[in-house]
Amino acid sequence: MKIVLVHRHGPGQFVHLACHLANAGWQVSFLCEAMNVRLPGIRTLRQPATPPPPAMPFAQYHQEVGLKAAKTLDNLVREEGVPDIVYGHIGWGSMMFARDVLPETPLIGYCEHYYHATGRDVGFAPDEDITLAKRTQLRLRNAAQLATLDQLDAAISPTRWQKSAFPVAYHHKIGVCHEGVDTRRCRPNPNAELTLPDGRVLGTGDQVITYVARDLEPYRGFPTFMRAAAKLAKENPDAVFVIAGGDGISYGQPRADGRKWRDVMLDETGIDQSRIHFLGQIPHDQLIRIYQISSAHIYLTYPFVLSWSMLEAMACGAPVIASNTGPCQEVIRDGQNGFFTDFWDSETLAEKMAFCLTRQNDLGRMRGQARKTIIDHFDLELCLDKQTSLLERMVSADMGSSARQRM
């Protein structure tokens, strides 16, 4: 079987699936602008990069990305023939013209996030002004996804909440299946240790509050976390705060003054910096150790895409304190497999962190339920089986249709 995976920056959400299919004997090709990691047995079909907005308007950007992806795909077809199936992220326009290159090939889309002017991430901050310009920009950002969905045979969204954002008219096309969490790697380890940059070694017996995000920014609740951490630090001299994440902006907008949110919040809170450890963006094995030693893992998010970090922390048995926003409400059951807190309420967050530190012996059942939730619904093997089954069914159906046409 020959599959082409399409993503602006590979491998993205397809990393596990790509390796799984390659190991099963599929010919796997990645069509992308850049490949962030090299995967054995998987080749890259590199398309020319397109400068993202604000270098050009969204509509033009999506069109440029789509046309370059289509040309790259067309070159592949001319040189090697038609692939059996194409599965691609629809968010940047990369799949917009795939049907024009492959009129009969099964096409599947990955549906990550559909924009709304109200009720989701946009407008969630109380001080955000949703102007007409913002509303029209969001509609243009969705235009590429709608043009793509119209041509797809099927689509996958990682959670029910993320699927619910897309227009109801397309729900019949969109199934729900997460990329999966490797619960064999992400598992409790009572002997886990983490060595900090200053040489101190932390283990499961220490009072460790953890926070992980791709970047330390408002979309993932970093300011709220820092205010709560500063309050707890004053009340509990044994609490240690371990933070993983970069200083860039993955979502939302940079500060107008150009300052990093880490510096801003250190200045605002005045927290004792010997108590808080910033590790930056670190390898995955270190992230797992962070989750394994965590006395309480904090996951705050706007109503936006759900991060792998929360699910991996739960798989490691960490007590998770999560914001009571849509992405988390699908997974967390308050008081059973985690705790909820208001996204903006740093006082309550500090209280719940303190509760976890002082009641560690009472949280064994919650830790077990957290891991069970991930095993039952997000286990990697389970998710890979579902995705592979869909791909095989679609290829088989297409081959059967082609055979009937030849008869």
UniProtKB/TrEMBL annotation:
It comes from the Bacteria. Pfam families: Glyco_trans_4_3 (PF12000), Glycos_transf_1 (PF00534). The keyword Transferase applies. One of its GO terms (molecular function) is transferase activity. InterPro entries: Glyco_trans_1 (IPR001296), Glyco_trans_4 (IPR022623). Keywords: Transferase. Residues 25-185, 205-372 form the Glycosyl transferase family domain. This is Glycosyl transferase.
